[in-house]
Amino acid sequence: MPHRTDNRHFYRMMVNAEVKVMINDPEAARVIDGICRDLSASGMAVEIDEPLEMGTLVRIRLESPDASVAPLDATAKVMRCSQESEDCYQLGLAFLDLN
Predict the structure, then answer these.
(1) Sign of the four-CA dihedral 84, 33, 46, 28
(2) CB 79 within 8 A of CB 85
C-alpha cells in the first residue's frame, strides 16, 4: 500500500511561471521579478535573484495565461530563504490573504 512521506497539508503543483514580488515596506517598496516553481493552497516557492529576510511581508501577483482566469493576487510572508546558487534564492512563501 503506497503511503505519503510528505507531511504537507496540501499537495504542491509544479509551476514555472513569472511572478511579481512586491515588498510591503514603505521605505523599501520595490518589485522583484521571480519565477514561481511550485504552488499550493497555502503558499508557493519562488526563485528570485536576491535574498529576503524571513518574516518579510510581500504581495505577489501571478498572471494567468488564460484571460478567463483571474490572476493570483495574495499577501504572503517569507517563511524561508535559501541560496540555490550565486544569484538565485528560493523563497518559501505562506499565503496570509488572497486579494
Answers:
(1) positive
(2) no
Residue range(s) defining the domain that contains residue 55: 17-98
* Sign of the alpha-carbon torsion through 94, 13, 50, 25: negative
Please list the ranges in the chain whose pLDDT falls under 70.
Answer: 1-14
Residues with Cβ within 8 Å of residue 65, at least 6 apart in sequence = 17
Q: Is residue 80 part of a domain?
A: yes
- Predicted TM-score (pTM) of the model is 0.82
Establish if 62 belongs to a structural domain. Answer: yes
* pLDDT given for residue 9 in this prediction: 52
Amino acid at 87: D
Residue count of the chain, please give it. 99
